[in-house]
Design goal:
Length: 412
């Protein structure tokens, strides 16, 4: 039996086709063209993977051991179930909050990350300027590749924090603190979960050194990423801003410079040395939270170092409630690890965090497109925060509460 079409066909007129033809603007700017196609942080991650050498991408993307801590952090956010309210007035959305007593346009901070110019030669100044445009703080790492003073000059409108590792050489640690204070940094972030280096197996397998060495493997990589190597070799040498020179692996550097004997007493010493707010990063238990707040911390970051130190460490989002209960309103509490969307940020704040710290998200943007890539990462996160709030029926970040979210039980 033959079926005849029931809808009559005709040839469309040009006047009907013309409104449908909307080609995008032509541009010879490859970075702008690539970033225009990016719709999410995972999209930026895929672009970064294509643009950067494998060892550089893996340093950012990877974690310690079997990377179980990182996977569990992502799984925790995947288990978040939002509980929206409908028929709420969300015609105006306020994404701002207060962080250490000062307004932040968004409830997240650009976290400290080491070796940032390795991701892209624009490095920390690019991140700082993007943070200023987004209206959020940015923390410079002790292991940064831009000096304390140079970043302050390059990003003068940015609310800057300085992240400190306690070195064996306390005089050097004291010098960093004095320089940050003199340069006008707002807060000091003491990272406490690195007595020794975590076993980052991707770095070991890739033979990563800082600065990258020209082994046979990296020469082969250079043929696939010529632009990255051209930028590296034709700009100022990639060095740690806090060291005159170091050639070796990350683990060797940590073993040589960081102090495994650091204790809570050092926090008390730091409290006497630094006159601004102190944030302690790397807390995963209630007893440690109480101890550092008792010793003078103004805020803590519930963090397992993005899964990059002790694999199988507690998952920050899951232990956040007990840490909050331990310190009450004596200190602000932030959270990091596994945050790759604005919805993740909203979930963390709803569960009680004052703000979230994001690191990998903006580093993917930096690798993908330099400063404009970091801008794109901030834009994506900000848009997702706004949309999530509106769909939750919440008009202000400050109105987020635990009843807006539920952590579904793990599968299996």
């Amino acid at each position: 039996m033959t079926h005849r079409p029931t809808t009559p066909r005709r040839v469309p007129r040009w006047s009907e086709l013309q409104p449908l033809l909307r080609p995008g603007p032509l541009t010879t700017d490859g970075v702008a063209r690539r970033l225009a196609r990016v719709a999410s942080i995972p999209d930026l991650r895929l672009l970064a993977r294509r643009r950067a050498p494998r060892a550089v991408f893996d340093y950012t993307d990877g974690a310690a051991g079997d990377e179980l801590s990182l996977a569990r952090s992502r799984s925790a956010y995947a288990r978040v179930e939002f509980r929206p309210r409908v028929l709420q007035d969300v015609s105006t959305i306020d994404t701002s909050t207060t962080v250490l007593g000062t307004t932040s346009a968004l409830p997240f901070v650009f976290a400290p990350t080491g070796f940032t110019r390795m991701m892209h030669t624009e490095g920390e100044p690019a991140v700082g300027r993007a943070a200023a445009r987004a209206g959020i703080p940015y923390a410079l790492s002790t292991m940064g590749t831009t000096s304390i003073e140079r970043l302050a000059a390059a990003a003068p409108d940015t609310r800057l924090w300085f992240q400190l590792y306690l070195w064996r050489d306390r005089v050097a640690s004291r010098d960093f603190v004095a320089r940050a204070e003199a340069a006008g940094y707002d807060a000091l972030v003491l990272t406490v979960d690195t007595p020794v280096a975590g076993a980052r197996l991707r770095d070991v397998r890739n033979g990563l050194t800082v600065p990258p060495s020209l082994s046979l493997r990296t020469v082969a990589e250079a043929s696939r990423h010529p632009r990255w190597w051209w930028d590296l070799l034709t700009t100022e040498p990639l060095e740690f801003a806090s060291l005159s020179r170091f050639d070796g692996t990350v683990a060797e550097l940590v073993g040589q410079m960081f102090d495994p004997a650091a204790s809570v007493a050092d926090l008390a010493w730091l409290r006497e040395t630094w006159h601004g707010p102190i944030v302690v990063k790397g807390i995963t238990t209630a007893p440690d939270a109480r101890a550092v707040v008792d010793a003078g911390a103004d805020a803590i970051v519930v963090s397992n170092h993005g899964g990059r130190q002790l694999d199988r460490a507690p998952t920050p989002l899951e232990v956040l409630p007990e840490v909050l209960a331990a310190v009450g309103d004596r200190a602000e509490v932030y959270v990091d690890g596994g945050i790759l969307s604005g919805a993740d940020v909203v979930a963390a704040v709803a569960l009680g965090a004052r703000a979230a710290l994001v690191g990998r998200a903006y580093l993917y943007g930096l690798m993908a497109g330099g400063e404009r890539g970091v801008d794109r990462a901030a834009e994506i996160l900000a848009a997702e925060v706004r949309a999530t709030l509106a769909l939750l029926g919440v008009s202000r970040v400050e109105d987020l509460r635990p009843e807006h979210v539920h952590l579904r039980p793990p599968v299996g």
